[in-house]
Design brief:
206 residues, alpha/beta, five-stranded parallel β-sheet, single chain, Rossmann fold, 5 strands
Length: 206
């Protein structure tokens, strides 16, 4: 089973990934946690380039290709082997992020980004994608609590960028039945319970 988590920065994905790992492990499942960009030695080096604020002159085309290169390595080196070995793979972001961030957020042609992602992920299509949705006002509120120096290059983006990204996720939700949108303003426990219910439904199908 391959589960991905998506949403705007500061939506609480990483917290929910950790809670889900703990739950599934307690149920006796063998769980593999990965993050994007990153997850392999090569992908982690690409991550450093992508998130470094010193790289402020990075073109949108370079950004897309670097994210895709990191993802391609992760798919071949970690995701596919882990799935074949019977593990449940949980990824903190995956290919939907490029459609939301680089197509909708950066303005790269949608058809091209979608075709590139199909090439990059191959057979590694998520069984379930959790989209933690928070309004832009919540992004502003949560971002204000983080020191500017601690924000990475993507997190330092302007609010109008995040508005476009959210529209990308809403587009994907309407297109892909695997995507389950959850209100990210609920409590951590409420969100976790909702996610667990979605996982249990998926287990019955699988």
């Amino acid at each position: 089973m391959f589960i991905t988590f998506e949403g705007l920065d500061f939506c609480g994905k990483s917290t929910q990934v950790q809670l889900l790992e703990k739950y599934l492990s307690s149920e006796g499942e063998n769980v593999k946690i990965i993050r994007e960009p990153g997850g392999t030695p090569i992908s982690e080096k690409i991550r450093d380039i992508l998130l470094d604020k010193k790289n402020s002159k990075m073109s949108v085309e370079t950004e897309l290709i670097l994210f895709s290169a990191s993802r391609a390595q992760l798919v071949k080196q970690e995701i596919i082997p882990s799935l074949y070995s019977g593990k449940i793979v949980i990824s903190d972001r995956f290919h939907d992020s490029s459609i939301a961030y680089q197509a909708f957020g950066r303005g790269i042609p949608l058809n091209f980004v979608e075709e590139l992602q199909r090439f990059v992920i191959g057979a590694a299509v998520p069984d379930l994608t959790i989209f933690l949705d928070i309004p832009i006002e919540e992004v502003i509120a949560r971002k204000s609590k983080v020191k500017q120096i601690d924000l990475d290059r993507i997190e330092s983006s302007k609010i109008d960028f995040y508005e476009k990204v959210r529209q990308g996720y809403l587009y994907l939700e309407g297109k892909e039945s695997r995507i389950k949108r959850i209100n990210g303003k609920q409590t951590i426990d409420e969100i976790h319970i909702t996610i667990v219910n979605e996982i249990e439904k998926l287990k019955k199908i699988k």
